[in-house]
Amino acid sequence: MPDTEKVIQLSRIFHVTTDYLLLDIVEAPQSAAPAENNRETEQRAAEKRMKRQSMRMHFGWFLLIFGIISLSATLVGAGLYAQTLTEWWTNLGRYGTALFDSWILAPFIVSAALTLCGILILIREYIFIGKE
Question: For residues 112 and 106, what is the distance between their CA atoms, to the nearest angstrom?
């Protein structure tokens, strides 16, 4: 036989009577939980939404800052590499050749994509703030 306190706790959790748990009498569960429980549940859900939105905003800022820093580093690297070139093969001169005809193009594309993703995430979160 289960402990009486545990049966009472189970009946409160599942919103059923103790008879339903102990005697296996088929009955409909009790009506909706009290208004206090509904408010607490709504408050927890709102807190979770706010926390998720905050996490998305922090992630957006991280992507934006990391993208800008890596984009700047890539462009500086291309400029330094362009100074060592004696010939160029693009219409953009030494700098274009250093950027588009070398390994520097891959980090340039990745850092530009990170920056763009950060901007898009932040725009979405700031426009839809509180609209979830």
Answer: 10
pLDDT tens-digit map of 13-71? 877 777 777 776 665 555 554 556 777 888 888 888 888 888 999 999 999 999 999 99
Residues found in the chain: 132
Name the phi and psi angles at 7, rounded to 5: -65, -40
What type of residue is 74? T
Sign of CA dihedral 32, 35, 39, 44: negative
- pTM equals 0.61
Question: Tokens standing for 111?
Answer: 């850092």
Structure tokens at 99: 């950027």
